[in-house]
Specification:
By secondary structure, the protein is an alpha/beta fold. It has helices at 5-18, 24-37, 41-47, 53-64, 80-83, 87-93, 115-125, 136-153, 162-169, 176-192, 227-237, 298-308, 325-334, 370-377, 393-404, 421-427, 432-438, 462-470, 507-514, 519-528, 534-544, 549-557, and strands at residues 95-101, 104-109, 129-133, 196-201, 205-212, 215-223, 249-257, 260-271, 274-282, 313-318, 343-347, 357-361, 384-387, 408-413, 439-451, 456-459, 478-481, 493-504.
């Protein structure tokens, strides 16, 4: 006969300590939370980020002597009425019936040590139950896929899930419904790979939308009385001023999903129907920070690598907001890991943290501007300086000064293309001779949606052929169109890819800059050096089936 669940849970915790997987202090904290919430200690450790989903499932499988469920394709849906169980019960105990095999009910359970729940299942179904342990995220996605709108309609209080933890730490400031909405929206955002979550109060309701692959998609519309509790919950966890509802506020926090901590940047803003909030998800594990992993063309990647090896000068990254400039700069920073060089950065905001970089958060309201931070950096003997954005003459002047005095400066600036950074800096007051002495090159980029594997070939349209010809591309023949499948949730697209142009300046280009030659003349030389426009790079990706001509045309016209 199996040992009682309490004894097996105690053994699990002892094993975690013996294996050195969890610190004793973390277990002490989890035990305190467990007393408050009623959740098992190991599940609290998972929710606090001390134990990953995979590690918890492995421990459960070993202690309960069962397999770990690997969801691939769900078997046919079982009739719950025939089984004698309700959807509310299954959701509360986090069990998913899979199939009946040899008279036994096969289930995936997030907690295979929950003897009370399993005994209830045996009693209700009149069948022996065989359990496999399920990772929480896997169970949630499969449960929602299996029961769809039925699952969404169930508003059961689940004391074992993340909502319970959130409600307990809110100190009574927020209603549970608002807290659950925030948690569920965040879980969905992580599941679909969203970059932002928008809470938008309207006259009669609260609309929650997600930005997925650069496009806004509706997630949920809820009653207006949840608007204030949801935004208040966000402000609590981001350490913002709950009493201040008239002014915008910015903060930072983290959520734990699947046993993994994900950083979140929070911005609130007053509207006529209440406060709105936007959560920017900064999941470093979802962002490739290696140059080869960015999806750039090989020639662009090579330019970036050569720029990173330069001893001094300024190299610029340009593109509109949301074009991936920060990711490219961070990938350049990543190349200095293990290097003896001293690397400093000033950013607004600091999105990801690096162990080998001393990062400074700009705070203009305190006088810590980009320019002020850069002046301070010059007294700290750096080798490499990253400037989050050159946006004013003072910052431009100090950045150019740093580049001319033996430092490699990597920076972003807003301009239409790689060559447009030159007149942009000149407009900010940089002298042509200074720019000629400091400038090393630039990259310009956009992001386009990537086609899902369900894509299908088609013949290019007349408008697409004309667009390609106007940019000097070879005649378009076969391209691809989006179709839509379960993997891409019917959109036909999954993820985004950069399209870019890049060049490094040679002595002749630098002389042309010093002589104030027109940008068109400099462009001719840059093309001779291998500069291929963003449009040409995008059209090449369209022919390969990475994206569509429409995506490229939209990105270039923007």
């Amino acid at each position: 006969m199996n040992k009682p669940a309490a004894a097996r849970r105690a053994r699990l915790i002892e094993d975690l300590l013996d294996q050195g997987r969890v610190d004793p202090s973390a277990i002490s904290r989890a035990e305190l939370v467990s007393l408050r919430t009623g959740q098992p200690v190991e599940q609290v450790l998972n929710q606090l980020g001390e134990l990953s989903d995979d590690e918890l499932a492995e421990q459960y499988a070993r202690i309960a002597d069962c397999e770990v469920w690997e969801p691939r394709s769900l078997p046919a849906k079982l009739d719950l009425t025939d089984l004698g169980v309700t959807l509310e019960f299954l959701r509360r105990v986090r069990v998913l019936p899979l199939e009946i095999r040899n008279g036994a009910l096969i289930c995936a359970a997030c907690d295979p040590l929950d003897d009370e729940a399993l005994a209830g299942l045996v009693f209700a179904t009149g069948r022996p139950v065989k359990v496999m342990t399920a990772r929480a995220a896997d169970w949630r996605r499969a449960f929602d896929e299996r029961f769809g709108m039925e699952a969404a309609a169930v508003d059961a209080v689940d004391e074992r899930r993340l909502e319970r933890e959130i409600d307990q730490v809110s100190d009574g400031l927020v209603e549970g419904g608002g807290a659950r909405l925030v948690a569920e929206a965040f879980e969905e955002a992580i599941a679909v790979g969203a970059s932002d979550i928008h809470f938008e109060p309207r006259r009669h309701d609260l609309r929650v939308r997600l930005r997925v692959d650069g496009r806004m998609v509706d997630y949920r519309v809820v009653p207006a009385d949840l608007a204030a509790p949801a935004v208040s919950r966000i402000k609590v966890i981001a350490n913002l001023n709950l009493g201040e509802k008239r002014l915008p506020q910015d903060g930072r926090t983290s959520f734990v999903i699947g046993g993994k901590s994900v950083d979140v940047r929070v911005a609130t803003s007053p509207t006529v129907f209440g406060e709105a909030a936007v959560l920017r998800i900064l999941d470093r594990s979802a962002v490739p920070l290696e140059l080869e992993g960015l999806g750039l063309a090989p020639d662009v990647t090579e330019v970036l690598k050569r720029a990173g090896r330069m001893p001094h000068g300024i190299f610029l990254v340009t593109g509109p907001t949301g074009s991936g400039k920060t990711t490219t700069l961070y990938a350049l920073l990543e190349t200095f890991t293990g290097s003896p060089k001293k690397v400093l950065s000033v950013e607004d905001p600091v999105e990801y943290h690096f162990e080998h970089v001393s990062q400074t958060q700009a705070a203009p309201h305190l006088g810590l501007t980009f320019a002020a931070a850069l002046r301070s950096f010059l007294r700290q003997d750096p080798d490499i300086i990253l400037v989050g954005e050159i946006r004013d003459p003072e910052t431009a002047a100090v950045a150019i000064q740093a580049a001319m005095t033996g430092h490699l400066v990597l920076a972003s600036v807003h301009a239409n293309d790689a060559l447009a950074v030159l007149p942009r800096l000149l407009d900010m007051g940089v002298e042509p001779y200074q720019l000629a002495a400091a400038f090393r090159g630039a990259v310009a980029q956009r992001l386009v949606r990537k086609l899902c594997a369900c894509r299908q070939p088609r013949i290019a349209s007349e408008a697409e052929i004309v667009f390609a010809a106007s940019h000097g591309a070879p005649p378009l023949g076969q391209v691809f169109r989006p179709v839509g499948c379960a993997r891409c949730k019917g959109s036909g697209f999954k993820g985004r890819a950069p399209i870019a142009e890049a060049f490094l300046a040679d002595d002749e280009v630098l002389r042309q800059i010093a002589d104030r030659r027109p940008v068109d003349e400099i462009a001719d030389k840059a093309r001779a050096l291998g500069l291929r426009s963003v449009a040409l790079d995008g059209l090449a990706k369209a022919v390969e089936g990475v994206t569509t001509p429409d995506e490229v045309m939209g990105a270039v016209h923007d």
